[in-house]
């Protein structure tokens, strides 16, 4: 019985201790334990229509900004400064060069040729311009060169055995001629100097041969050289100028077709059949040359503009050549075909510049006019009675003024304008009061390009 009581008392003691410990815990711990769990955050649904609308608005805004940037780059300002300028009415064209030219060709053209006169050099009638090589020329030249070496060696061996004043004079002449060639690149001058030097050397050898102990040997060499030289010269064919003019070796075979005598034979069909490239340089011939009249030439062209259809014979117009030179020309021939007009223009400037070409691209300037230059878009019109009066809008210090102007010349983009005189405005119906208040256009005024 005692043991059972003891066990029961122990259990009651333990329960009492646990209850007491629980009562002694801090209140905060109990409170934390009793706190409810936090609720998770709510997820809000986003409206897709709002996102789409916002995206469209952003896209529109970006597009507008890009448009403004591009517009600013292409047209940085809406104004134009009035300046002194020139307005052209021009037309691009393809032209065929026609010249007075005489081809010079001999019988031995297959042997090859040596130029005596250079390209572009002026010659008189009957003056030699080139020659054909003789048969076996290379072999004869080699023999002459070998003899020259032997003659030099023979003369060197006899040095000091004779003194002749003529020999010293010839040596001085040779030295001076060689010195004169140092700063020249003219082929004709070089050829002539070479001939003179060769002649002087031969003359020196002859003198040396007569006064030296070995004179007979030198004479033999000199005579042999002369024999070969005579063979060389007798076999060569020299070609002379049939008329005076300028020498050219740019022979293309079209000299007869493009002759000033044959304007009536020109047609669109004929010209377009020719296999000639625009701007191609004519190659030098190795068989023939020609004499050109360099005081004038012609350009034939096919045009389809209204200006060409209305062109008048002998009228003066300007043309712009491939080298950008603007030269005067006159209309020498007109042929109206079904769809086009063939014009032949004569020019007397820049003739030498065109010698190397048969077909070129160039510009025809039908007219040009100088004065106050403004863009066509800046010109507006108002009705005054039964007449239309032109005006521009000037902007200055934030103010805009309407300026009456008259157009004197106009092309596709620009106009040349002038101010009206008071008498002209009175005649057009403007009152004296309006004339007193009117403004005039001056150089460097700022005008609106596209006034409303």
Outline the secondary-structure elements.
Layout: H1 2-24, H2 27-34, H3 48-74, E1 79-81, E2 83-98, E3 101-104, E4 113-115, E5 122-123, E6 128-132, H4 137-157, H5 165-180, H6 187-211, H7 215-235, E7 237-240, E8 245-248, H8 268-273, E9 289-292, E10 297-303, H9 306-309, E11 316-320, E12 326-336, E13 341-347, E14 359-375, E15 380-384, E16 387-396, E17 399-410, E18 414-419, H10 422-428, H11 432-437, E19 446-448
Antiparallel strand pairs: 1-19, 2-10, 2-14, 3-9, 4-6, 5-8, 6-7, 8-9, 10-13, 11-12, 11-14, 12-13, 14-18, 15-16, 16-17, 17-18
Helix pairs in contact: 4-7, 5-6, 6-7
Written account of the structure:
The protein is α+β, with helices and mostly antiparallel strands and 452 residues long. Helices cover 36% and strands 28% of the residues. It contains eleven helices and 19 strands. The strands form four sheets. The chain has a six-stranded antiparallel barrel with strand order 2-10-13-12-11-14. A four-stranded antiparallel sheet has the order 3-9-8-5, with no helix packed on it. β16 and β17 form a beta hairpin. α4 packs antiparallel against α7 and α5 runs antiparallel to α6. The longest helix has 27 residues. It is extended, with a radius of gyration of 50 Å. The protein starts with a helix and ends with a strand. 17% of the residues are buried. The N terminus is likely disordered.
